[in-house]
From TrEMBL:
Name this protein carries in UniProt: UBX domain-containing protein
Stretch list, region Disordered: 64-98
Pfam families: SEP, UBX
InterPro entries assigned to the protein according to its UniProt record, in alphabetical order: NSFL1C_SEP_dom_sf, SEP_domain, Ubiquitin-like_domsf, UBX_dom
Boundaries of every SEP domain copy: 159-232
Organism per entry: Amphimedon queenslandica
GO biological process terms, semicolon-separated: autophagosome assembly; Golgi organization; membrane fusion; nuclear membrane reassembly; proteasome-mediated ubiquitin-dependent protein catabolic process
PANTHER family, per database record: NSFL1 COFACTOR P47, UBX DOMAIN CONTAINING PROTEIN
Amino acid sequence: MAPLQVHFQVDTVDLNKLKDDEKDLQHQKLATIAQCKNEIYQQLERINTSFSCTCTPSKVASLSDYTSSEGTKDDEGQSFFAGGSEHSGQLISGPPRKKKDLAKDVFDAAKKQGAVPVEDMEKLRENDRKFTGTGFRLGDTEGPSDYVPGIRVTIGKEKVTKKLVFWRNGFTVDDGPLRTGQTPQDRQFLESVSKGCITPNLIDASVPPVAASSSTGTSSMVVVDHTKPVTSVQIRLADGQRLVGKFNHTHTVADIRQFITDSHPEMKNKNFVLLTTFPNRTLSEVSLSLAEANLLNAVVVQRFT
């Protein structure tokens, strides 16, 4: 892009034809014009040396009810032109527009429906609300916001707490996959959060019913019932890889073995055992539930035999 330029035009005046007082006034005008020219040239020099004209598209994902980009950057301020004549003027940039905040919009709407801050959760333990609790703090980096332990689903007399995390390019529920917010299921889920009404079918629609995703991208056939207590088990494979599986407390050691072989089919024909880390013990009774085997939120090590 060519540097910005400003051209000045001053009409020629024959000073010999002017009276003394008119000459003094004309000299003052010329001095003022010269001073203005110097100041404008200095400003143009700063602009031409520091201004970058590279434009990048907005990275903010859009949702029909919460965001609308209209092809402009979120932080771009409106510009105004303050003109003097046809040959000169000044471009003035207004303050940047406030960035759209999807998470804040969702939770502000939820508060209007009766949601309460996280610190008030304990006061509502006996309350049978379908939705309680909001609390989040967002950053400006690619990292996640602080998680929000605030989606409580009433299923009979049991309440299930879900962890909703807003990322820069989407959101996740518990340890589920990243949701972009662009699918009808995702939009319906976020709209339901904002209305304070979450049902199990909406959670299941937003979070596919798989135990976990492996490092190879293969999903396990071990199905998790999200209406029952869920735990995570970290598995250190013999080849150095790691898996994190989600299981119900009633799943067994055999289900962990199945999760490993489903995620890594090449291990189906290999003999291996599972061990705990500390204290070290071999998990030989594969029929034990994870609760019985003390494997809730535990680390399990695979060893070839």
